Amino acid sequence: MARLTGLWVYQELGPRPDPEAVAARAQRHGLKWLTAQAFRGDDVLDADWLRAMRRATRKHALRLGVHGYVGRPHPKPAAEAKATAKAIDVSEADFAIVDAEGEYEEAGGRASRGFVAAYRRLKPGFRTYLSSFGRPQLHPGLDWATWAKEGFLGMPQAYENLNAGALKPIQCVEDWARFFDRGKLRPTLGCFSEHGHSHLPIKRLVQSVHEVPDLPFNVYHHGTVTPAELKALAEIT
After folding, report:
1. What pLDDT is recorded for position 209?
2. DSSP the chain
3. How many beta carbons lie within 10 A of that of residue 137, not counting itself?
4. Are 18 and 43 in contact (CB under 8 A)?
């Protein structure tokens, strides 16, 4: 079975992608799911595009997740939880990913507890991942334990391309496993350039997956991953 299973898709990073085109591309590379940017803070984004993503993923036998960044400019836990739940309903999503980072870290445990409590009242038992910093030990202010306790699964941002010394996938997985079920972790590879950091060489990108032999991976994001990266990752079994 191929180790690369999913791809992050965005409405707001560059031109909004055509749902049919992005789903067909994913299917050609053997992916199993796409996650569509569906909310930002307490706002649900373009509902028509989300419904089109649902139609396209069904056509191409892909699962659909929804994701969004919460906390900017400051956390609004109850409102953001409500928006996440609404985005799930609008898109008829199969799972959700909540991206909580610096704002929730700076706000302390109360914000995390508020979000997960409000969310679980709306979506008890719904398959949901926390996406966040690659290394919990470097960000102790985020209440990792609360997210894990309330049934969120872990999706580490294993962006070795940004920090080769600290963010190798194997390092991120072992760190997240202090809080989350290791066998259900789904690391995200960084296939993008940012702040002077470029894409990893493909040979190293592939090697980083082999260093974690027992877990599926996904890629951030649709607009920056190259055809060569997708091809090489899709060949890893």
Report:
1. 98
2. --SEEEEEE-SSSSSPPPHHHHHHHHHHTT--EEEEEEEETTEE--HHHHHHHHHHHHHTT-EEEEEEEE-SSS--HHHHHHHHHHHHHHHT-SEEEEEE-HHHHHH-HHHHHHHHHHHHHHSTT--EEEEE-S-GGG-TTS-HHHHHHTTPEEEEEE-TTT-TTT--HHHHHHHHTTTS-GGG---EEE-S-BTTB-PPPHHHHHHHHHTSTT--EEEE-TTT--HHHHHHHHT--
3. 12
4. no
Tokens read off for 55: 């139609």
Domain boundaries, the chain: 4-234
CB atoms within 10 A of CB 82: 18
Beta-bridge partner residues of 194:
197
* Alpha carbons 218 and 32: distance in angstroms, whole number: 10
- Low pLDDT (below 70) residues in the chain: none
Instruction: Locate 168 and state its tokens.
Output: 């190798």
Question: How is domain 4-234 classified at the CATH fold level?
Answer: TIM Barrel (3.20.20)
For residue 141, CA distances in Å to 113, 144, 183, 207 come to: 13, 9, 25, 31
Q: pTM surpassing 0.85? A: yes
Contact 173, 212 (CB under 8 A): yes
Structure tokens at 204: 């190293």
- Looking at residue 30, its pLDDT comes to 97
Q: How many angstroms separate the CA atoms of 96 and 98, rounded?
A: 7
State the Cα–Cα distance between residues 197 and 30, nearest whole angstrom: 28
Quote the crossing angle between the two packed helices 47-59 and 19-28, to the nearest 10°: 30
- Site of tokens 């909310």: 39
